[in-house]
Amino acid sequence: MRILVVGSGGREHALVWAISRSAGDHEIQCAPGNPGTAALATNVAIAADDVDGLVKHAVSTGIDLCVVGPEVPLVMGLADRLRAKGIRVVGPSAAAAQLEGSKAFSKAFMERHGIPTAAYRTFSSADHADALAYVRKAGAPIVIKASGLAAGKGAVVCMTLSEAENTLAEMMQHNAFGEAGAEVVVEEFMEGEEASVFALCDGRDYVLLSHAQDHKRIGEGDTGPNTGGMGAYAPAPVLSDDLLQTASSRIIEPTLAGMAAEGAPYEGILYVGLMLTEVGPKVVGYNCRLGDPETQPVLMLLESDALDLFLAAAEGRLKDHQVRVSSESAACVVLASEGYPGPYEKGKRIEGVEAAGALDGVVVFQAGTRSSSEGLESSGGRVLAVTARGPDLKTALDRCYQAAALISFEGMQYRRDIGRKGLARLAAV
Ligand code: GLY
Questions:
Q1: Cα of 291 from ligand 1 centre, angstroms
Q2: Are residues 61 and 155 in the same domain?
Q3: Is residue 233 within 8 Å of 294, Cβ to Cβ?
Q4: Which residues constitute the domain of residue 151?
Q5: Are 334 and 399 in the same domain?
Q6: How many whole angstroms separate alpha carbon 306 and alpha carbon 18?
Q7: Is the pTM of this model over 0.90?
Q8: For atom 4 of ligand 1, which residue has the closest CA?
Q9: Are residues 213 and 159 in the same domain?
Q10: Which of 196, 254, 298, 299 falls between 20 and 30 A from 325, CA-CA?
């Protein structure tokens, strides 16, 4: 079996790692991949958003299964194009990927299907005056989102009215998010703790992978600007079995039924960002792919054969498929470049990855790295995702931090408080 993983980050290194542990004879390729994936797969120099190039490559090299990491090629229709060529895919059609590609679509979808989420209004960029009047009437805190894809930066939680007014001006008058801001969603601010659930879906049925909690801000104590994610842990102690059951019956199942009823059955990973409010879980947003860095601990806890599971999803056979998830914990600490999420320098020599990866229970997933004649060096904002599994969350976190201490590159920064909320919750029960 020949498998193509699309993408180049820590998430895709983790996908390649999980598939490489699957039983049987198979060849893994990763497009474009990174030096971490090159150790387990053949990297193919095609960008993740080069849909034509990926389809041509998949057809000409006889790819049997394609697992798509990032959202952009999915929203561009990569899964549809591959399926039209008879290639199995883990990833939704362009129509189904609208759940992430258009916040205006996903909010209206949730409204149509009675799925709990924050109250909202959508405005086109020409309606700045109406949006401003709405925000002034609603007051702060309030959430303003560019409707389209904005690399995780398009949702702004505005704590004051003047912040909300400035955000509307940036999005609607100064075009800060380009096309993604052509429509703007203004949402009620929800109080609670966030958690992420990951459902692998085949259009009709689904299985749940471990749930997780992300750390979006750059600074400790959840301060500073948003990033792609500075660390994660799985499972999320805040998500009790009861809450998960509620999320499944009131959110995941109606989402799958609703998409199927609207002619866009959902096949692939459905990542639901939840807010655990006083009145139950509500949807913060959908993503049409796995999270990064949540994937790294989530896949570390997957005990089922990953390839069998992905094939069952791609072939519509999840109904009777049992997924096995470890009862242990896993955590991930992201090592980032100095300056990230703002401008940063590349080309910093990285030391210690091998020694860190040799520690018990640790895997160092690579993200923004490249090989040079001198060895491994940084090439992105989020450079490495140091991930570890252990019998409990504390052990997993201790292992991550012991491993992180063995790694160095100039300007390396990371949060020292990953998992603290989870540990506090566990200590409280
Ligand atoms: N870590 C958040 C995301 O992948 O969207």
A1: 4
A2: no
A3: no
A4: 119-188
A5: yes
A6: 6
A7: yes
A8: 291
A9: no
A10: 254
CA 130 to ligand 1 center in whole angstroms: 31
Q: Based on the domain organization, do 133 and 278 belong to the same domain? A: no
Same domain, 269 and 284: yes
Rounded CA-CA distance 182/124 in Å is 6
Residues contacting residue 262 through CB under 8 Å, at least 6 positions apart: 109
Number of domains in the chain: 3
Is the beta carbon of 291 within 6 A of some atom in ligand 1?
Answer: yes
Q: Are residues 293 and 414 in the same domain?
A: yes
3-state secondary structure at position 75: helix
Question: How far is CA 75 from each of CA 78, 79, 130, 145, 205, rounded to the nearest angstrom?
Answer: 8, 9, 29, 18, 22
DSSP character at residue 159: S
Q: Is the CB–ligand 1 distance for residue 287 below 6 Å?
A: yes
149 with 38, same domain: the answer is: no
Task: Assess if residue 108 is contained within a domain.
Answer: no
Pocket perturbation via mutation, ligand 1, pick of 292, 296, 382 by most ligand atoms within 8 A of CB: 292
- Local structure of 37: helix, strand or coil: helix
Same domain, 163 and 305: no
Residue bearing the CA closest to ligand 1, atom 5: 291
Residue 101 placed within a domain: no
pLDDT 10s digit of each residue in the chain, 429 long? Answer: 999 999 999 999 999 999 999 999 999 999 999 999 999 999 999 999 999 999 999 999 999 999 999 999 999 999 999 999 999 999 999 999 999 999 999 999 999 999 999 999 999 989 999 999 999 999 999 999 999 999 878 899 999 999 999 999 999 999 999 999 999 999 999 999 999 999 999 999 999 999 999 999 999 999 998 899 999 999 999 999 999 999 999 999 999 999 999 999 999 999 999 999 999 999 999 999 999 999 999 999 999 999 999 999 999 999 989 999 999 999 999 999 999 999 999 999 999 999 999 999 999 999 999 999 999 999 999 999 999 999 999 999 999 999 999 999 999 999 999 999 999 999 997
CATH of the domain at 373: 3.30.470.20
